[in-house]
Amino acid sequence: MACQYFSPCEHGADSFTVMMPKLTFGRGCLNEIGDRAKERKLSRVALYTDPYLKDGPYVRNVLQSLKSAGIEADVFSDIRIEPDDATVVEAAAFLSQGQFDGVVSVGGGSSIDIAKAAMVYTCYPAHVTDYFAPPVGAGRAVPGPLLPHIACPTTSGTGSECTSVSVIRINALNTKFVLGSPHLLPVEALVDPACTDTLPSNAIASTGFDLLCHAIECYTARAYTRWDKVDDPNSRTLLQGANPWSDMSARRALEIVGEYLDRGVNDSSDSEARDNLMWGATLAGMAFGNSGTHLPHAMSYGITHLMRNITTDGYPVASPFVPHGISVVVNAPAIFQYLAEGAPERHLEAAQFLGADAVGATPLESGEIVSKRIVQMMKQTGVPNGLSGVGFGTDDVKALAESSIRQTRAINNAPKVANQSDMESIYSNSISYW
Ligand SMILES: [Fe+2]
Fold first, then answer.
1. How far is the CA of 7 from the centre of ligand 1 (A)?
2. How far is the CA of 57 from the centre of ligand 1 (A)?
3. What are the two backbone dihedrals, phi and then psi, of residue 188, each rounded to the nearest 5 degrees?
4. Is 93 helix (H, G, I), strand (E, B) or coil?
5. Interval between CA 214 and ligand 1 midpoint (Å)
6. In terms of domains, do 166 and 245 share one?
7. Distance between Cα 71 and ligand 1 center (Å)
């Protein structure tokens, strides 16, 4: 890190802001939704979910709980995994026509992110890219508050219930991009780990590596003190970099995923492991909602853009499809080898939190140690072996780098800033690990 958090830094920001929803965690807490919405005086809510959950027990329980509390609900479920800007337009039209006074989302990151984005364009109509940052959009600020949103994640990875961002695929540019504003933060999160009991093992693996990368990216991000001191507190950067809050939650999330991912993936009856992974995902969301991710997420977007002829067992999604957590982790071992010299002590600590054997190791060895530990966890949980495992080869590295270099915010949040040539080298080193 460039300087100590609480030491004076020339031109350095001297404060950080923590944003969090009211959070309830525990088996069965999904059934609290009716009382939670009633407490907020909601009378009619829009419920966003996906086609696979729509007729299942979680949405049924939520609808029953809302009904028992005297609250009407209409369901929007036309949300594909990795939702796009066309879905945002449809979801906003649904919201604007229903005379709703609140929003509920039940699902993975796709459902929660679409609920957030739909509210933005319903409350403050604009062209769909206007609120996205350049080069994708016009960079307009979301003007004001949205509807009360209660987010209910059903996977142990997204963390979106705790963040003020929505990640949407922009079709015209064929890439994913972040829509961020403090107004996007849900007012409440109901995190019920029972929702993960029936998830297939490869979904636990994918979401588990998403949470792992959220946490390690926050822990190794540049410090918030790199920003200029602000005169207007409302102009403080939303994704501000590593800070004491994100350090605390990222550290515990890394310890949890290091201890429980293998068990949660390889034994679907291990509810202790799956409960812990759900808590780890929440902690990692609390971290990245206030710190921001960096290079592994930036470089995953090239994969999502250029993937072809690839399917993933257990996901009812047409080809091409690579789950988000897999697209993030396949580059991660090579990325942390590259980044470690920018924050060697942090990388060594992160490796130790993940359970790496680092007795007697020095910070100079931290890139190798953290990389080996992630590869070990990838092998234990049966995820694809690097880029070659998701259909890419050395001929693709230039195009992948050209796509991912557009993720300026995330790239600049890393402890060492990669240019396009650096990215090509990292992708080359990510082709396979074993
Ligand atoms: Fe992620």
1. 32
2. 26
3. -140, 155
4. helix
5. 6
6. no
7. 33
- The alpha helices in 40-182, defined as continuous H runs, are 57-68, 85-97, 109-123
pTM of the model: 0.95
* Dihedral of the alpha carbons of 9, 12, 15, 21, in degrees to the nearest 10: -130
Number of domains observed in the structure of the chain: 2
CATH of the domain at 349: 1.20.1090.10
Distance of CA 219 from the midpoint of ligand 1 (Å)? 15
> From its phi and psi, is residue 11 left (phi > 0), alpha (psi between -120 and 50) or beta?
left
Ligand 1 midpoint to CA 211 (Å): 7
The confidence score (pLDDT) of residue 313 equals 73
Query: How many angstroms separate the alpha carbon of residue 146 from the centre of ligand 1?
Result: 24
Summarised one tens digit per residue, pLDDT across range 368-406 is 999 999 999 999 999 999 999 999 999 999 999 999 998
Q: Where is the domain boundary, 159, 191, 223? A: 191
- Span from the CA of 210 to the centroid of ligand 1 (angstroms): 5
**Could you give phi then psi for residue 75, rounded to 5 degrees?**
-105, 135
Which structural domain range is residue 75 located in? 28-191
C-alpha 346 to ligand 1 mean position (Å): 20
Whole-angstrom distance, CA of residue 149 vs CA of residue 182: 13
